[in-house]
Design a protein that fits this description.
The structure holds two protein chains of two kinds. Chain A is mostly helical. Chain A has helices at about 1-20, 25-45, 70-90, 95-115, 115-125, 130-135, 145-175, 185, 195-210, 220-225, 230-255, 255-260, 265-285, 285-305, 310-340, 360-370, 380-390, 395-420, 435-455, 455-470, and strands spanning about 50-55, 60-65. Chain A is built from 20 helices and two strands. In chain A, strands 1-2 form a two-stranded antiparallel ribbon. In chain A, a hairpin with a 4-residue loop joins strand 1 and strand 2 (about 60-65). Chain B is mainly alpha-helical. In chain B, strands 1-2 form a two-stranded antiparallel ribbon. The chains are: A mainly alpha, B mainly alpha. The interface between A and B is large, with 79 and 75 residues.
Chain lengths: ~475, ~625
């Protein structure tokens, strides 16, 4: 029941923000998100919280939500990042903006705890709407076009997923076991090889579009470029994880034979995406696009972890999702502050800003180092586990390429930092950070350091759930060490 | 564990307090506070080493772990520390030489407005370096390894408004990341095989293994890649010469005495693995010898006082890893120690010169400074004699030990390269010494303003100068001290200091003396200008670093940029395709009107309204049920 209340908080807050006077909307939203965060903290003390009631009994659909080790930390990532994004937003954006943000928080939170495929799908669809309206209403000049691309590509993806979900339920029914949309009941189900592969592809396309994974990232550049910084932080930090999370939560339990059959092909595609994003990031001159393509590359890193089909890789991806979400979210917000101060995003128009804004430079560098995977910050432990997974599954070549990409990542991230902050000062001085920025930057940085030096805090909790999810396919030693 | 954690935390506290309270601190306080903490860390290190020496030989180590680092897919990896005689040597040098350089920096950085930032970085470096050598497993080592790289990045780019400093910092960072990745993959391989990355467990397992499998070669090579980047072995040496953009105390501490020797530490630490990977072990020695002579040749005609010292550091790192490569582990560590003394003395003395000449580093503006700076000159001379291998100065003993064992272990070619390089070293070092301190002043105005450095700078220089003289006599102690380390596991039968053939010693010292004579004749008797030799072949090649910068650009950097450009084009094509499809769908949707209005906006809203209504209904229903 606790989970339902937790979901109700942002929904109620959204409505309150809509009713509240324009000037109070941000306050209402901030308080709501903080209440959700406190509620989440309470959830951490309840070992395993769940809701499971029938919804549409005729079809075997149940309103089933679970906060287990797999979803718990992604839920945490979203409640934390929503607080930060709301606090970092401008006060004068108006009621609808905060309404849509809180509504987005509601749908993301629901998605991360749903374990009935139908419920999962509902949240998956709902998610598209607030982002669409935020993009059309509060973006740059090409925001409408970006919103259109976002909606069309993602709707196409969910269309495939819908077919897949219905087909799974039907196959389960034809086996004489009745209709169900429960992931745990669908897992390990025998499917005809051809059908299995097609369904696998349908789900994979849906999740890959959302992440996005190369080459299905067509919506990404415009959306990331045009969206306001808090929204970019949320899309790159939280929503992108929904795609990877879907692969872990839905596909791993159900499609293990297909994963194993196409493993090498999947690894090759993920590796190409890894390289593609990194090389593109290296050649961008817009600081936001460097980070965006870097993020595209890192999404492929997470996919590599899953496709290694090892415990280390799956666990590494689970951890890395949270770590990357916090860091890339922070980075996009810092870039937003920079853009707000300088009025530009082009690396050619900025230089030497460290002199006038040392504190801004400090946090900028902090998140840059985190994203590039500095050992001691969380990116490192995630990448380590993913590479460990690749090596454990005897794919040394992919591990070496992933290692090479880490070097390129160091290159393109440091390049951005130096171009903006160092060298002889080109533009006029800018204002440094103020207390109202530090109040969200310090806790966020502290959290990043905490999970960076203590990854076991997450991995030890995620392990049982992950194995529980994989247990159904474990016959014949499904997953290697 | 007690005692070790405190040593580790002191400099970290320094970095944190200076960063947090720099606004409140009076001008000199950050430097004094930072130096004080490192000084205390040194005293604690001595005390800890005394405690360590009371343990019996076979159990001479202290270890402990704090918390789980990662867990969940196999045996946990802990945050583990480990102190044995090998790490103790580094501990002493890092805190000891580190404290001296901190004190020196109080004077050297006295007028720089970025002083607090400088000392915070310097303390952060000491912390990271201590973490590196006190790590009890490869994962913690890698964290320290990367953090020293970060500290080095900060300090190379300390004067961040200079474009050259920024470029140098980037190069150092990226090249070192390559090394970090090598260690990362290497440790993952070892974990895969042995389910641990802790030293004691790994080495015990290595002792039972038989050499020669590809697995061992791969892991050893990947770990060596880390050592190569950090210790600036050819072809990953480029960053170290550029790193001279940092303030001179940084060059002394990080880019000469301590951080760049991390590769020596790692390879000495991993001797049980090198036994299992004979090809990689041989490669360590070969690349080291090549780096040794290659860097020495570049140092020959450099025009910048710090560039000469930078290439001599590269060359000396070659000696240290040559020792490791031929199995003379103690000799390699010995040379690390003496090198820390004499190279720190050289850099700090050079720093005093640069300080006295208003930041002038060009040799063509120096000359005759001995009259103005007698103490600095004396320390520089002592260190020059040491690095040139003139007995009984410290460098003679350690270099002899390495070369002697290279010969006795049958590496005659590597030995020959080492001997010849010893002569080259003597030449370029005395060239530097004479051009700086003797002859006629080449820039009278600078000369007139020159003065001896303040005592806060001179004392550390003189102390290091004295250590360069007497450092060689620590050899016997070091040999006994390290012997339990290299007897603990199989793989280092000839680790102890050995003696080479007499004719070898005579050749090495003879060449050094002849080279000194040549330098004396050229630069004192004939008064040759510093620029002589850099116009004609082969001097121009040597001066221009044998075209390595161009080679790197052509072979590595530009191809990566080309691929990047190609990816940009591919991306444009892909996005155009997506746009085409999107437009097509929209047109199609508009054809379907009035069923579909074509307004995506309205469609989106209708999904939303429907779903919310549905959800709200059932949420209420659930509320009623339970």
């Amino acid at each position: 029941m606790f989970l339902v209340w937790l979901l109700a908080v942002p929904l109620a807050g959204a409505i309150a923000a809509l009713i509240a006077p324009n000037r109070a909307a941000k306050g209402v939203a901030a308080i709501t998100s903080i209440v959700a965060l406190i509620g989440y903290a309470g959830l951490l003390f309840i070992n395993r919280s769940s809701v499971n009631v029938p919804w549409i009994p005729q079809w075997g659909i149940r309103f089933h939500l679970v906060a287990d080790g797999l979803s718990l930390f992604l839920l945490g990532l979203s409640v934390v990042l929503f607080v930060v994004a709301i606090v970092a937003s401008n006060r004068d954006l108006g009621r609808p903006y905060y309404f849509w943000l809180l509504f987005l928080e509601f749908s993301v939170a629901g998605l991360f705890v749903a374990v009935d495929l139908f419920v999962f799908y509902v949240f998956w669809e709902v998610l598209l709407v607030p982002v669409f309206f935020l993009l059309t209403g509060w973006s740059g000049e090409k925001g409408k076009k970006a919103a259109m691309k976002w909606l069309i590509m993602n709707l196409a993806g969910s269309f495939f997923m819908l077919i897949g979900i219905v087909a799974l339920a039907v196959i389960h029914h034809q086996d004489g076991a009745g209709f169900t949309f429960e992931i745990s009941k669908l897992s390990g189900m025998a499917m005809a090889p051809g059908i299995g592969s097609w369904l696998f592809l349908a789900f994979l396309v849906a999740f890959a579009i959302k992440a996005p994974l190369w080459p299905l990232h067509g919506w990404m550049p415009d959306t990331y470029r045009e969206s306001p910084a808090p929204l970019t932080a949320l899309i790159a930090g939280v929503l992108s994880k929904a795609g990877i999370y879907g692969i872990l939560r839905v596909m791993i339990p159900i499609f293990m034979p297909q994963f194993r059959e196409y493993q090498t092909l999947l690894l090759i595609i993920a590796t190409l995406g890894l390289l593609y994003g990194a090389f593109l990031a290296l050649r961008q001159t817009d600081m936001k696009m460097v980070t965006s393509y870097g993020s595209l590359s890192h999404m492929s890193m997470m996919a590599l972890g899953i496709f290694s089909l090892t415990r280390a890789g799956l666990l590494g991806t689970t951890y890395y999702m949270v770590a990357h979400g916090l860091m890339v979210g922070g980075l996009f917000l810092v870039l937003g502050l920079l853009e707000h101060r300088t009025g530009t995003r082009s690396l050619r128009d900025m230089a030497g800003l460290n002199h006038s804004a040392p504190r801004l430079a400090f946090y900028f560098l902090f998140f840059v180092l985190g994203v590039l995977g500095l050992p001691g910050l969380p990116g490192f432990a995630g990448e380590y586990m993913i590479i460990q997974g690749l090596i454990t599954s005897h794919f040394l070549v992919f591990a070496l390429i992933a290692g090479f990409v880490l070097v390129v990542a160091a290159w393109y991230m440091i390049r951005v930092f130096q171009a903006v902050m160092q060298g002889p000062a080109k533009s006029s001085a800018i204002r440094d950070l103020m207390t109202r920025h530090v109040v969200w930057l310090v806790p966020l940085a502290g959290l990043v350091i905490l999970i960076g030096v203590w990854p076991a805090g997450i991995t030890s909790h995620a392990t049982p759930s992950l194995y529980h999810a994989m247990h159904f396919v474990g016959q014949g030693g499904g997953v290697r060490l | 564990m007690q005692g070790i954690v405190e040593i580790l935390l002191l400099p970290l506290i320094g970095a944190a307090t200076i960063t947090a309270f720099k606004g409140l601190m009076p001008k000199r306080l950050p430097g004094i506070w930072a130096s004080f903490l490192v000084g205390v860390a040194f005293i604690l290190s001595v005390a800890t080493d005394v405690r360590l020496s009371h343990l019996s030989g076979a159990h001479r180590w202290i270890t402990g772990s704090a918390w789980n680092f990662v867990t969940g897919f196999g045996p946990s990896i802990h945050f583990q520390l480990y102190l044995d005689p090998l790490s103790a040597v580094w501990l002493l040098v890092i805190t000891g030489v580190g404290a001296l350089i901190h004190v020196y920096s109080i004077g050297y950085m006295g007028d720089d407005p970025g002083q607090p930032r400088f000392f915070a970085f310097l303390n952060f470096f000491i912390f990271s370096m201590l973490l590196l050598v006190l790590a009890g497993n490869l994962a913690v080592l890698l964290i320290g390894w990367a953090l020293v790289g970060l500290a080095s990045y900060f300090l190379i780019g300390f004067w961040y408004q200079r474009p050259t400093a920024v470029a140098a910092a980037k190069k150092a960072f990226v090249m070192n990341t390559l090394g970090d990745v090598g260690i990362l993959i290497g440790l993952a391989l070892l974990y895969f095989h042995y389910h641990t990355v802790g030293y004691t467990h790994l080495f015990a397992a290595f002792s039972r293994a038989r050499p020669g499998s590809a697995f061992f070669e791969w892991s050893a090579f990947l770990l060596y890649l880390g050592a190569m980047a950090k210790s600036a072995q050819f072809p990953l040496h480029m960053w170290l010469a550029d790193a001279m953009e940092g303030p001179t105390p940084v060059s002394a501490l990080i880019h000469a005495a301590t951080m760049v020797t991390a590769g020596v530490y790692l390879m000495a630490r991993l001797y049980p693995l090198l036994r299992l990977a004979p090809v990689t072990h041989e490669l360590v020695g070969v690349i080291a010898a090549f780096t040794c002579i290659f860097a020495a040749s570049i140092a020959f005609f450099q025009q910048d006082i710090k560039k000469v010292l930078a290439y001599s550091t590269l060359s000396q790192l070659g000696y240290m890893l040559l020792g490791v490569g031929v199995g003379a582990y103690t000799a390699g560590v010995f040379h690390f120690m003496t090198h820390a003394f004499f190279k720190a003395a050289l850099f700090l003395a050079a720093g005093s010169v640069i300080h006295a000449l208003n930041a002038e580093q060009d040799l063509s503006k120096m000359g005759g400074l001995w009259r103005k700076m007698p103490w600095t000159m004396a320390a520089f001379l002592a260190a020059t004699l040491a690095i040139s291998g003139i007995p009984p100065f410290s460098g003679y003993f350690s270099k002899e030990a390495i070369l002697g064992q290279a010969y006795t272990s049958g590496h005659y070619i590597l030995w020959g390269v080492g001997v010849f390089t010893a002569g080259m070293t003597s030449f370029y070092m005395f060239r530097l010494f004479f051009l700086t301190f003797f002859g006629k002043p080449r820039d009278q105005k600078l000369y007139d303003h020159a003065h001896e450095a303040p005592w806060v700078m001179t004392i550390p220089v003189v102390v290091l100068g004295v250590l360069s003289v007497i450092g060689g006599f620590f050899g016997g102690w070091l040999n006994r001290w390290l012997s339990p380390v290299f007897h603990q596991y199989a793989g280092a039968p000839h680790a102890a200091l050995g003696v080479g053939p007499l004719f070898g010693t005579i050749m090495t010292v003879g060449l050094a003396v002849v080279a000194f004579g040549v330098a004396y004749w050229l630069y004192i008797v004939k008064g040759t200008a510093p620029q002589a030799g850099i116009r004609a072949v082969p001097g121009v090649w040597m001066y221009k670093t044998w075209g390595m910068d161009i080679a790197w650009m052509t072979v590595v950097v530009n191809p990566i940029k080309w691929i990047g450009n190609w990816a940009v084009e591919a991306e444009q094509g892909l996005l155009a395709g997506v746009m085409g499809i999107a437009n097509g769908i929209q047109a199609w949707a508009e054809d379907l009107a009035p069923i579909e209005t074509g307004y995506v906006r309205r469609y989106a809203l209708s999904i939303m309204v429907g779903v919310v209504a549905l959800l709200a209904f059932y949420l209420i229903r659930i509320g009623f049920i339970s």
